[in-house]
Amino acid sequence: MAEGRHRGNGRRSRGKFNLGVIGRSNSGKSSFIKLMLQSQLGPESPDIPKTDFLECTEKREKFEIPGCSVVLWDVPGVGTQNEGLEGYDERIEIEKYDGFVVCCGGPVTEYELALNNLIASHGRRYIFVRTKVDAAIENEKKAHPSTFDEEETLKKLRDGIIEKLSESGVTEFLVSNRHPDKFDFETLNFIIFDEGALASYMKSCNKKVKKENWKRKQVESDC
């Protein structure tokens, strides 16, 4: 998709919620945005960006969905040679976003911890998304074929996130961009795109909100 179609200054439009998708380079954030757009526009929509796995986001891109108050932004990754941590908040103009999705494609590192502190220092809140869960499961299965247990592997992934980010109180969401029907994607999709759900979540996401509460709301909404 042509960049000009999405270009904007990032300032909050009336009634709009600017949600920046952020994370380390190669964390799967561009693929995550593509998946979110497909869930709302359909997989064959011409407004779905083509994801090049050999390239990283160099300029922020804006994605608007007709009739939706949430505006998605693909924000350049942190922790690369071109995008270090120092001055990162100024380069991405962090104040122009109302909240964030922090994508992490592996174990939590100093970069995610730094992003946590950076976002909090600007009075913003975020959703933590562990991407590439299918790859983590497959690696564990290959490493321990005789004792492999998928549920136990998922628990280890969640526990590792909670241990590192316990003080922030954020709720972790496990996602596979290749298998959106598995793990926490449907609940996360509901939180982001259901009318009023995202703003409500952002107000409480640093208070150890249980995903089960949002899954229940999702079921009630579908009824």
From TrEMBL:
Residue intervals of the IRG-type G domain: 15-195
Keywords in alphabetical order: GTP-binding, Hydrolase, Nucleotide-binding
GO cellular component term, pick one: membrane
Signal sequence annotation: none
Molecular function GO labels: GTP binding; hydrolase activity
Keyword flag Nucleotide-binding: yes
InterPro entries linked to this entry: G_IRG_dom, Immunity-related_GTPase-like, IRG, P-loop_NTPase
Entry superkingdom: Eukaryota
Keyword GTP-binding part of the UniProt annotation: yes
PANTHER family cross-referenced by the UniProt entry: INTERFERON-INDUCIBLE GTPASE (PTHR32341), INTERFERON-INDUCIBLE GTPASE 5 (PTHR32341:SF10)
Similarity comment: family membership: Belongs to the TRAFAC class dynamin-like GTPase superfamily. IRG family.
Name of the protein this chain belongs to: IRG-type G domain-containing protein
Source organism per UniProt: Mytilus edulis (Blue mussel)
Lineage: Eukaryota, Metazoa, Spiralia, Lophotrochozoa, Mollusca
